[in-house]
C-alpha cells in the first residue's frame, strides 16, 4: 500500500505488545507487519519483512533493543530504528545514538506522540524525547566494551572463575578488568560496580 509506514514491533511484555499493535493499527498510514518478543526474533522479522521502521523496547530476552540496533547498523540495514522504553537514562540514550538509532521516546507518551515520532523517523528525522535531550550528555560512560561485558556477567551472579571460563579469559585478567571498572565507578565491589553501571544505563 503506497504511503503506508510498515513497522516491526518488538516488545517482550505481551500485554504492552498487543496494546501497541492495536493502537498503531488504528492509524491509517501505519501497518504493523510483524511482532517480536526477543531481540533475535526482531532481527529475524526485519530480515523477513523489510519494514520501514523497527519500533523496539530496550530490555528483552537475549539481545536488547540496543544490541539489535547496533547489529542492524553493522549490517547496513536501511530500516530506521525507534526505541520506545520506560528507561529515561542518559547512558541508554547515548548508546542508542551511537548505534544509529533514529529516535528514542518514552512509553508514557500519548499514542498520538508515538505515531508522530514514527512518521518523523520514517521521513528521515531524528526524534528524542524532550525530557531526555538535555540529560543525554550528563556524564560520559567511562567503561570499555570488555569491562561492560564482564559487568553484565557479574549481574548474572557468575564468579570470576565462571566468567573466565565463559569468555575464555584468564581468571587474573577478569579480576584486573573488574578492578579497573570498580575504580572508574568508585564502587566497593564488583557487584556494586555492576549495579552502578546498570542504573546509569551503561550495561
UniProtKB/TrEMBL annotation:
It holds the Pfam family Response_reg. CDD domains: LuxR_C_like, REC_DesR-like. The modification 4-aspartylphosphate is found at residue 57. Residues 6-122 form the Response regulatory domain. Keywords: DNA-binding, Phosphoprotein. Residues 136-201 form the HTH luxR-type domain. PROSITE patterns: HTH_LUXR_1 (PS00622), HTH_LUXR_2 (PS50043), RESPONSE_REGULATORY (PS50110). InterPro entries: CheY-like_superfamily, Sig_transdc_resp-reg_C-effctor, Sig_transdc_resp-reg_receiver, Tscrpt_reg_LuxR_C, WalR-like. SUPFAM superfamilies: C-terminal effector domain of the bipartite response regulators (SSF46894), CheY-like (SSF52172). This is Response regulator transcription factor. The lineage of its organism: Bacteria, Bacillati, Actinomycetota, Actinomycetes, Pseudonocardiales.
Amino acid at each position: 500500500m503506497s504511503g503506508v509506514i510498515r513497522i516491526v514491533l518488538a516488545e517482550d511484555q505481551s500485554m504492552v505488545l498487543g496494546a501497541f499493535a492495536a493502537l498503531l493499527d488504528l492509524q491509517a498510514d501505519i501497518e504493523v507487519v510483524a511482532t517480536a518478543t526477543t531481540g533475535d526474533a526482531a532481527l529475524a522479522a526485519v530480515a523477513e519483512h523489510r519494514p520501514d521502521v523497527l519500533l523496539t523496547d530496550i530490555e528483552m530476552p537475549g539481545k536488547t533493543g540496543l544490541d539489535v540496533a547496533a547489529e542492524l547498523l553493522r549490517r547496513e540495514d536501511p530500516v530506521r530504528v525507534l526505541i520506545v522504553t520506560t528507561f529515561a537514562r542518559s547512558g541508554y540514550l547515548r548508546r542508542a545514538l551511537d548505534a544509529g538509532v533514529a529516535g528514542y521516546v518514552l512509553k508514557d507518551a500519548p499514542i498520538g506522540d508515538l505515531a508522530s515520532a514514527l512518521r518523523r523517523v520514517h521521513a528521515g528525522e531524528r526524534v528524542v524525547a524532550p525530557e531526555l535531550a538535555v540529560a543525554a550528555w550528563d556524564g560520559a560512560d567511562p567503561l570499555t566494551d570488555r569491562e561492560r561485558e564482564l559487568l553484565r556477567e557479574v549481574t548474572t551472579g557468575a564468579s570470576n572463575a565462571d566468567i573466565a571460563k565463559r569468555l575464555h579469559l584468564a581468571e587474573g585478567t577478569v579480576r584486573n578488568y573488574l578492578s579497573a571498572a570498580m575504580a572508574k565507578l568508585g564502587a566497593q565491589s564488583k557487584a556494586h560496580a555492576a549495579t552502578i553501571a546498570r542504573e546509569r544505563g551503561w550495561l
